[in-house]
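Weekly structure sync, notes
Attendees: PL (lead), two postdocs, one rotation student
Agenda item 3: pending single-chain targets
PL asked that the sequence for the first pending target be pasted directly into the notes so everyone works from the same version. It is reproduced below exactly as submitted, 195 residues in total.
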Amino acid sequence: MMTPDQERECIQQARTDPRAFAPVYDHYFPRVYAYVCYRVYDRQDAEDIIADVFFRAIQNLKRFKWRSSRSFAGWLFRIAHNLVMDYFRQRRRAGPSLESDDSQVEVVDQAPLPEDALAQQEVFQQMRALIATLSPRRREVVTLRFYGGLRNCEIARVLGLRERTVAAHLCRALQDLERKYAAPTKSELVTEAAT
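Predicted structure, written out during the meeting:
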């Protein structure tokens, strides 16, 4: 775990020596990876975007301005968010969306037993389907919060919103998800009616 002071020192050094960025990369990579892989379902495209996020961060490090101890996370995820949005704009221009392909990317970093892996994959696909029913803004807030690990103030910076607006979107999104998760599916209702 990197402290804000360590992060600031590494970033300051990385402005003149990119190798000093390595601890910052190690610290943020899992969160950026989870966020981008959740949003972009093709593994190769996701890995390309992730590489571009960190390349652009290093390339533009001299322009980054400290505002608080969490401003770097907001800045980094703003880069990731913009690249993901660019990806989807390009995909729309190129043809059909790949958003329905849930089999490409797994956001699991440990190797569970096969039956546990199957159960995790089913839960992941169910949650992805539920999150996909949210409005685009709420879907992005939930993704940044739970896959990117950002706090509301950081999400506000990434999306250009007020922190209270982010909190409202997050609260309503979680209420929607809870309601939809608790509601029985049509196949469950048919099964119950048949018995």
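Discussion points:
- The mean pLDDT is 83.
- The chain is about 70% helix and 0% strand.
Action: rotation student to compare against the earlier draft before next sync.
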